[in-house]
């Protein structure tokens, strides 16, 4: 943020210097005046484009959709008023998809929990079958969870004028930290359970904690 402020200050001073030199030197040639005006217009356009984006953005959003983001640099999404209107529609679609894949992920967590409870009582071939089913459910859930996260983290930022955040969205973000931590812990412990069966209770706690945070996080989006 400090670097950005310094950069904007330098641009402002540079534009001001160009404008002052134009006033002090009334006998400047026509080509030079035209060049100065073009540079001043370009600077104003640049500042106007920056005002189209909110001051606060996620790091992942800034990578793709920031003033110097990847999609801006390769000119896939130019930072214009019309472009931002299209981005808002893309944002709405991605956030709706985020909810849909979120429910699919929730179903995967529930399936894993049921299989985990059955594994505690299973033996022999039944145990192996349930273990394979749980591993399959874990893989599908991981894909769904990753897709859900990416849809949220890489969606275009909201309009600069829309700075207010609903209380439900704030709660969703806080719960996301909990279920993300539980999700990572569950996967790490799942890879160790086969060699260390004593870790199974911890894996169960991590899994149920993830589910306990993920379900309210989805509900919070409705408020």
Mean pLDDT: 79
The string of secondary-structure elements, in order, is HHHHHHHH
Please state the CA-atom Rg, rounded to the nearest Å.
26 Å
Q: Main β-sheet, in a few words?
A: none
Number of domains: 2
Structural class: mainly alpha
Strand residue percentage: under 5%
The count of helical stretches stands at 8
Q: What is the helix fraction of residues, given as a range?
A: over 70%
Overall form: elongated
Regions with little confidence, pLDDT below 50 for 5+ residues = 1-32, 40-47
Number of strands: 0
**Terminal residue distance:** 31 Å
Keywords: Signal
Signal peptide: 1-17
What do you see in this structure?
By secondary structure, the chain is mainly alpha-helical. The chain has 2 domains: 72 residues; 140 residues, no CATH class. The protein contains 8 helices and no strands. Helix 1 packs antiparallel against helix 2, helix 5 runs antiparallel to helix 8 and helix 7 runs antiparallel to helix 8. The N terminus is likely disordered. Keywords: Signal.
Q: Helices, strands, pairings?
A:
Layout: H1 2-24, H2 30-50, H3 59-65, H4 70-73, H5 81-119, H6 124-153, H7 167-193, H8 200-220
Helix pairs in contact: 1-2, 5-6, 5-8, 7-8
